[in-house]
Amino acid sequence: MPFKKLVASALVAAAMASSGLVQADSVRIGLVVKALGIGFFEAANEGAQEAAKELGDVEVIYTGPTSTTAEGQIEVINSLIAQKVDAIAVSANDTDALVPILKKAQQRGIKVVSWDSGVAPDGRQVHLNPSSNALIGEMNVKLAAEAVLASGAEQGDIAILSATPTSTNQNIWIDEMKKVLPQYPNLNLVTTVYGDDLADKSYRETVGLLKSYPNLKAIVSPTSVGIVAAAQAVHDQGRAGEVFVTGLGLPSELAGHVDSGVVKSFAIWNPIDLGYAATMISYNLVKGSATDSSVGMGRIGTASLDADGSAAMAEPFIYNASNVHAFADIF
To answer: What is the pLDDT of residues 227-258, one digit of tens each?
Structure first.
């Protein structure tokens, strides 16, 4: 073989070997969401992919069940364990039901992070709250008070449309809302209903609220699926301007409802940042770069961990007619 050809072949072989080495050493992170097809989680995956690109040696496996069930997530996590991923970052459909399967994952050497909706401490090493639970609860009540005033009333009935009855984050936020409500004597919470993070069920539950509570002034839905369905139901029932919808949602999905007057304001943290931070935390756990009190989140900063390994990312941000379209182009 001529010398030049020999050298060229050697370089190709070296490059292939190098490529194989990088592949073998890459960190594989399973990003498990409550259910596929939800805009909030699609945006979180965008952030996770951003983190993977920045880190350079990470593969993110974006996955989840087709419906918001713990059973579906257990099946997905079993598959990730079989694939021998290095870390699992999960937004849980149930606080406790995932603990046994996630303990199994940890016994196999897999690092486990819960984000958005948490897992009990035995099932994970770190939980990343999108914000402080107390601030989220307080924010939702504050938005409800503004919605009641927007209806032209000094006081009025409000209702909560949640996701599933077992959803960890929803239940914590609702508890925090109830702690703050005594500070708002003009608000009367009449009930909490559950749309299971399904658009059609959330829509039907909203129609039921409108019929059951004629003096209803505001519906608070701290879920991105529920708030859109509730806004559509209020619009379709011809109650815009009389009943306002607020809570937590995505600018891209709510800009039209802000324009129509069904939604005056709502809040959310940046789900892209949340997926980015969860991936960075997972990576640092795999690499042994975290301590018992802190772990890096890349461009977001450093998360301070409490005794249970929980941390908060940022405060919720309010969106209204003045800014929703600017953010709707982003997420």
So the answer is: 999 999 999 999 999 999 999 999 999 999 99
Q: Any idea which architecture 133-268 has in CATH?
A: 3-Layer(aba) Sandwich (3.40)
- As a whole number of angstroms, the distance between CA 294 and CA 156 comes to 44
User: What residues contact 324, with CB distance under 8 A and at least 6 apart?
Assistant: 251, 254, 255, 258
Where along the chain do its domains lie?
A: 27-130+271-314, 133-268
- In CATH, which of 3.30.1360.70, 3.40.50.2300, 1.10.150.20, 3.40.710.10 is domain 27-130+271-314? 3.40.50.2300
- Phi-psi map region of 113: left, alpha, beta (phi>0 left; psi -120 to 50 alpha): beta
Whole-angstrom Cα distance, residue 249 to residue 195?
Answer: 15
Q: How many CB atoms lie within 10 A of CB 315?
A: 14
> Quick one: DSSP state of residue 247?
E
Specify the DSSP class assigned to residue 240: T
